[in-house]
Design a protein that fits this description.
261 residues, alpha/beta, Rossmann fold, 7-stranded parallel β-sheet, 3-stranded antiparallel β-sheet, 8 helices, 10 strands, globular
């Protein structure tokens, strides 16, 4: 795991977007794992801008989202399918048939989870996975005590997650209590991972995930086990990290980051 600290949220998001863009240019058929949430919205806006101004080509890219709420139709404005349409898919030249999310209204949820795992496998796995981190340390909807080898499955959401996300629903109490999520093991199978974390509110859980022990109580800590995971943060999110000096040194000195300095 590498930790890269950028001075601001915009610079952290910009670096993340540039890494994704470079990955697409290097492999036009990239299999891209996608996340949702306020943090990554800036990244998607930057990718749309790169498509419009630099010709970033999404035509052969295939995508798999981390999760979807159980009980929400893909046409529901609160579904993650509609979130992705609003923030990315409708603004770039991606083939919508190559964009995949779990179906939250599938008649057999367990079968839908197996189907989603198989769809990822049929694409030979995920090349580049974008992640955020929840207040409780979750990635996707892998809430505390999620098994490190877990695969795509249904999960009950914690009260903390419901409290955090329900204001996005109208009325708030209509937020689903369960979701389909890629498992921790599914995420760990990706070839490259970038976890984007910004803001002081995430500082404490980021420090636990990055510098604390690997534990099922904080599913994001599992990324310490990944052979190629980069954690990109702003100064606010990095405020509780103990090894900040070293992380700054990495970006300033490692050859792989020279094009981005």
């Amino acid at each position: 795991m590498e930790v890269i600290i950028r001075p601001s949220q915009d610079e952290a998001c910009s670096l993340t977007a540039q890494l994704i863009a470079d990955a697409i240019r290097g492999n036009p058929k990239l299999v891209l794992g996608l996340a949702t949430g306020r943090t990554v919205e800036r990244v998607y806006a930057m990718l749309v801008q790169k498509h419009r101004e630099e010709g970033l080509d999404f035509s052969l890219v295939r995508t798999f989202n981390l999760d979807e709420y159980i009980g929400l139709d893909p046409e529901d404005p609160n579904s993650y399918r509609q979130y992705m349409n609003r923030h990315l898919f409708k603004h770039v030249n991606i083939d919508i048939r190559n964009t995949h999310l779990p179906c939250g209204v599938a008649p057999d949820i367990d079968e839908e989870c197996r189907r989603y795992e198989q769809a990822i496998e049929d694409c030979d796995g995920i090349d580049f996975q974008l992640l955020g981190i929840g207040i409780s340390g979750h990635i996707g909807f892998n809430e505390p005590l999620s098994a490190m080898r877990s695969r795509t499955r249904a999960k009950a959401l914690t009260p903390l997650t419901i409290e955090q996300n329900s204001p996005l629903f109208s009325p708030p109490e209509s937020m689903p209590r369960r979701a389909i999520t890629m498992g921790v093991g599914t995420i760990l199978d990706c070839r490259r991972c970038v976890m984007l974390v910004t803001g002081e509110a995430k500082a404490e859980v980021l420090a636990k995930a990055v510098e604390g022990p690997v534990t099922s109580m904080i599913s994001a800590s599992a990324m310490q086990l990944h052979p190629k995971c980069t954690v990109i943060v702003d100064e606010a999110a990095a405020s509780r990290l103990e090894n900040k000096e070293y992380y700054h040194w990495i970006f300033a000195n490692e050859p792989e980051w020279e094009p981005y300095r």
